[in-house]
Write a structure and sequence with these properties.
It is a single chain. This protein is an alpha/beta fold. Helices cover 36% and strands 18% of the residues. A five-stranded parallel sheet has the order 3-2-1-4-5. It is globular, with a radius of gyration of 16 Å.
């Protein structure tokens, strides 16, 4: 288990109280999406901000998160599947669900943790689904990093934008 997952597991209960920025990002990302979706796949679903946003405007919802503690906080239901797993894996759902039915792939503030963002973005581009993502980059906390004298560990926006080669992407 990597250090990031360990920290999300450790602070899952208090994260709910302090994740206002992530909730705002999810809302801004998803508000333009007004249609009803057959199946939403949320990569790095955490405690369910994306699921909460859609308020059931889907036939099925699949959340995948590497933190078991965060998965335990995610909403559950007959049409909601929460999978404890790594979205960098070859099969996002470990083969448990027919992902060919997915018509929206989303990730709000999670993809910066990907071990291979180029491959992950390519997989999204080659799916038949709409894609809505928000990613923290090295510019996100630039002032804070400069103030404390640390280099950002987050990916550079320019580098990420090079991965988006197909479709219409707003960066």
């Amino acid at each position: 288990m990597n250090a990031v997952v360990t920290e999300f597991d450790r602070f899952a209960l208090t994260y709910q109280e302090t994740c206002d920025l992530q909730k705002e990002i999810a809302n801004d990302l998803l508000s333009p999406l007004q249609k009803h979706y057959k199946c939403v796949l949320d990569l790095g679903s955490g405690s369910g901000a994306v699921c909460h946003h859609f308020k059931g405007n889907y036939d099925a919802f699949i959340g995948i998160d590497a933190s078991l503690s965060m998965c335990n906080l995610h909403p559950k239901g007959t049409n909601i599947a929460v999978i404890h797993g790594d979205f960098d894996e070859e099969k996002w759902d470990q083969g448990k669900i027919d992902t060919s039915l997915v018509d929206l792939i989303t990730s709000a503030s999670s993809l910066q943790w990907s071990k291979d963002p180029e491959r992950l973005i390519s997989r999204m581009q080659h799916s038949n689904a709409d894609v809505a993502i928000a990613v923290f980059t090295s510019e996100t906390f630039k002032d804070l990093h400069q103030m404390v004298g640390y280099d950002s560990f987050l990916p550079r926006a320019q580098r990420l934008s090079e991965y988006f080669t197909e479709g219409v992407w707003e960066i």
